[in-house]
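Researcher: Next entry in the queue.
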Amino acid sequence: MQIDETVSLKGSIDNIGIISYWKAILNVFISPQMTFRSVSIKPRWVIPVILCVIAAIISEAATSRYRMAEARERILSSQELSVEEIERRVDAIDSQAVTSIKPELVAAAFAIFAAVHMIKLLGISLFVWLGLHLFKSAVKFVSILSVTSFSFLVQLPEAALKIPLIVSKESTRVFLGPAVFLPTEWYGSILFRIVDKLNFFNLWMVGLLMVGLPLVTDIKRSKVYLTVIYLFVIWLIFSSLFGELVQIG
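Model: Structure for this entry, 249 residues:
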């Protein structure tokens, strides 16, 4: 009976087969199990990473002026900095303003965003891989990397939603979760950052990891869920304590 069930499961996966890259990307949003079953047969991660990097570059280009304006305002209103320190920091912010688009600047920005995104992706994938190995899983790192990179694709609709809101408000204080209900004076506090990171898209990403990882690992779903949850809690606390230094997206 066990053999029959195994053969049946293998047959169902083989029937689905390895779907195309673009179909796999689309199905992340409408049928994630199909995407992750395909990834379990043939791990892939390059194109999802490229798409997320492009989304990050577009987001930065569209919203950086508002972010820098808010940073400038915070520095000018600071009661803790000396006049000289305020002038130095304001000059540093003003020097970052780009008055013209140069090919070398675009290339440098792409390289920086690609490197940062890859470091974040590899870091998260490594922590998940190590976490699963606590349960003696023999899963390959490239399989974890593939599931993580496809899960990161929720950053595409997130950017598509946040960019117009930021531009229309002329402010980066756009929240897509329960943080929208918190008092504005809490902004910047550790509690506010924790609640802000419990937004719809981060939870969606966690949900995708819970769907995809059991399909590429050899351990029980309950252990995969436990691993994802405790790693998410660790990331939530660590990233909130250190502000914007650590993000998933």
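Model: The two ends are 45 Å apart (CA to CA).
Researcher: Noted, moving on.
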